[in-house]
Amino acid sequence: xxxxxxxxxxxxxxxxxxxxxxxxxxxxxxxxxxxxxxxxxxxxxxxxxxxxxxxxxxxxxxxxxxxxxxxxxxxxxxxxxxxxxxxxxxxxxxxxxxxxxxxxxxxxxxxxxxxxxxxxxxxxxxxxxxxxxxxxxxxxxxxxxxxxxxxxxxxxxxxxxxxxxxxxxxxxxxxxxxxxxxxxxxxxxxxxxxxxxxxxxxxxxxxxxxxxxxxxxxxxxxxxxxxxxxxxxxxxxxxxxxxxxxxxxxxxxxxxxxxxxxxxxxxxxxxxxxxxxxxxxxxxxxxxxxxxxxxxxxxxxxxxxxxxxxxxxxxxxxxxxxxxxxxxxxxxxxxxxxxxxxxxxxxxxxxxxxxxxxxxxxxxxxxxxxxxxxxxxxxxxxxxxxxxxxxxxxxxxxxxxxxxxxxxxxxxxxxxxxxxxxxxxxxxxxxxxxxxxxxxxxxxxxxxxxxxxxxxxxxxxxxxxxxxxxxxxxxxxxxxxxxxxxxxxxxxxxxxxxxxxxxxxxxxxxxxxxxxxxxxxxxxxxxxxxxxxxxxxxxxxxxxxxxxxxxxxxxxxxxxxxxxxxxxxxxxxxxxxxxxxxxxxxxxxxxxxxxxxxxxxxxxxxxxxxxxxxxxxxxxxxxxxxxxxxxxxxxxxxxxxxxxxxxxxxxxxxxxxxxxxxxxxxxxxxxxxxxxxxxxxxxxxxxxxxxxxxxxxxxxxxxxxxxxxxxxxxxxxxxxxxxxxxxxxxxxxxxxxxxxxxxxxxxxxxxxxxxx
Length: 756
Known about the structure:
Layout: H1 13-18, E1 33-39, E2 45-51, H2 53-56, E3 61-66, E4 97-98, E5 104-110, H3 113-120, E6 124-129, H4 136-140, E7 152-161, E8 171-179, E9 191-197, E10 202-207, H5 212-223, E11 230-234, H6 249-260, E12 264-267, H7 270-275, E13 283-291, E14 297-307, H8 315-323, E15 334-342, H9 357-375, H10 379-386, E16 393-394, E17 399-400, H11 406-417, H12 419-432, E18 436-447, E19 458-465, E20 471-474, H13 484-496, E21 503-505, H14 524-551, E22 558-561, E23 564-567, E24 575-576, H15 577-587, E25 593-599, E26 606-617, E27 623-633, H16 640-659, E28 689-694, H17 717-729, H18 740-755
Parallel strand pairs: 1-12, 10-11, 14-15, 20-21, 27-28
Antiparallel strand pairs: 1-5, 2-4, 2-6, 3-5, 7-15, 8-13, 9-10, 9-12, 13-14, 16-17, 18-26, 19-20, 19-25, 22-23, 23-24, 26-27
Helix pairs in contact: 5-6, 9-17, 13-14, 14-15, 16-17
């Protein structure tokens, strides 16, 4: 292949590197007003009065809009398609019943950002405060956190497989994991521009997002406008990881734009992005497995509690998604899963990279490591005994895992990583001195490629041949900055035999691009990419037919090559694509345009096995990652360079989740709101990250056999690192992150127990 399978840079890399690229926060429209949000200062209660007189008296202030002078119509921030009527509409653009510190209660509109922020500081709010809950212990103890609601907001139970008649002779293994809230830490915070034309009743919204049609659905319903009168344009995005899958700023900006009848701009600070968008929710998880003495899992019972925070959002779907993740990787004869969602007066949980698979992997991999320790079996051996094999069925989805290669990934990884050699070297190192402890860990995990079979997932769009030989492809893409547009261009280029820079790919615009679910569920390459491939094949056939007619040569003797029509057995090309386009337009009916739609009916196994080598400083509690290897069953890498970049970024993100990151709730209901107190894993903390891609387990339906990579590469990271830390310390730590406080506390407890 000429394009697919080669490393190519992201199409807009130079613009981003030089600062030329414009993000939503950089855009400006004539006569634009600037907004500054007013947030609740209390964790729970009612807004009784808003005193805005001082703010309104400030020159340049256009208005103060708040919960007591605007609509009380409600929406759900997670609503992204019409088939989600089950979601409760819980929040307004501005809420008089506030549920957490940071809840939106109003906004100031002014002539510039400085004036808006100055005016916001002059607004005084009177509250009626109510008792509040800041987490699991408060809520489950019955502490009141939401009026009219029970502590448990949703529950889900799932059984898959056949239960054993008896557990006699099996070894029981119990394990737990507790995870904190996490911030997405995208380079770009949330931003939105909304413009309303009252003369044609047209609302136009520009924002970085993962689903333009989802935003349109919410805004049209919330503002009671026809969907055809709401246009949403996806702006250049500086990262998301799920943070821009839900809608926070858009209803506010749209509401105020309609009030003022002028463009408005709302950009969140880092603190606002941390507290008033979404977080990865805090979780408590436990697993109880039953194993044969040689390590084969026979049954597992999983219990998960998710703290949804102040609004339910996607939490119900999240615990249901988590239930299906163990069977994406492991062969489990019987699983009983129970998940529940609780509320608290804290930031709202929401979408996060891997959509629960990373959390599930922490639970499952801790369980497998605990089983290996109890049974005296090597951690690789017990995984190889229990992973799914090619052709087996995902017992929750009832779909074939196709040519799943997780066993091969473990075997190859152990060889490339030097698992046995490192274990022996670490044992000698740990025995040679007192301060440092080294260990190795493995984490495996799986994910999906599509919504199917939960939804009938599909992709559609068109490709046209332009008169100069270039091509126009119209699909609803949402590039997060990871190279989606580049990958789609490469797929089309491979079929049409034209350089990818000659293919223009659209991104999401509800007035132009076809309806699409959005860029999540790891569906873009597998589903939309296949639609691109199908459209390119259809255009190829149409071009060959047109050329055959023009040249009076049988179609089966013609082929495409290097932007030309060529004939088998003839050295010189017959016709350039530009000539074909022009002649076709003048001699045939219409131009060379095709439309294709693809609906998928598969969801093969996509997995990874990661290996980590760490060194723990027992004096300071800090952990250094010495070496890292990621092996992924990817089917076919469309762009190996971008796949490796995705994996490298995922390793950095997962190391942070394992070793440093947590959003801490204070007793007054406030949460971490600064990166100075939210410790990220930095680039200079990273080890050399080695990547191996298994590309011979092609999917049946993905473009050129491709499977997903963007989310699954995050799934095994924290389990691998955590397993290595536990190996180094001979510990069973189960509360993340394994930061210095956690490790020093554990070591102190070990000393106390030893002294006792």
